[in-house]
Amino acid sequence: QVQLVESGGGLVQPGGSLRLSCAASGRTFSSYVMGWFRQAPGKEREFVAAISRSGVITYYADSVKGRFTISRDNAQNTVQIQMNSLKPEDTAVYYCAAELGTSVTMRGEEYDYWGQGTQVTVSS
After folding, report:
1. How far is it, in rounded angstroms, from Cα 94 to Cα 74?
2. Of 50, 48, 62, 60, which Cα lies nearest the Cα of 91?
3. What would the mean pLDDT of 88-110 be, rounded to a whole number?
C-alpha cells in the first residue's frame, strides 16, 4: 500500500498563492499516476489536476487551468500543486491521490490510495 500525507494548506487572501505538497510512502512511487482533488462544503469531490508517472503528461480541470501547476519529484516521492491567483471558490479540502495504472485519469473512482486532505481557505 501507499500512504499519502498532504501539507501546505491554510488561509490566503484572494489573488494570493499557495503551494501544496504530498509525500508518499512506498518503494515504487514512480509507478503511480498522481492526482489532486478537492471537496467544498456541500459539494461533491471534484478533479483538480493529474500527472503521469513520468511527469510529462498533465491534466487540469477547466476551473483551474492557467492558475494551478502540478509537478512531481520521483526521487523524493512527492507531488506538488502550485496554486496562483486564488479565488474564494477555490476554498475546499484538497486531497492527494495515487493510481496504480498507466493512463492519467480524471475519475476519482479509479484512484487506489488517498490522503486525509488539507484545508485551503481563500478569504479576505
Report:
1. 21
2. 48
3. 94
Calculate the average pLDDT of the chain. Answer: 95
Give the separation between CA 42 and CA 64, rounded to whole angstroms: 20
Average pLDDT over residues 85-94: 98
31 pLDDT band (50/70/90 cuts)?
Answer: confident
| Of residues 24, 92, 102, the one with CA closest to residue 64 | 92
pLDDT at 27: 73
* Neighbour order of strands in the sheet with 78-83: 4-7, 18-24, 78-83, 68-73
Angle at 54 between CA 50 and CA 90, to 5 degrees: 20
| All three cell numbers of 115 | 490522503
CA angle at 80 for the pair 77 and 84, rounded to the nearest 5°:
170
- How far from chain centre, in Å, is Cα 99? 13
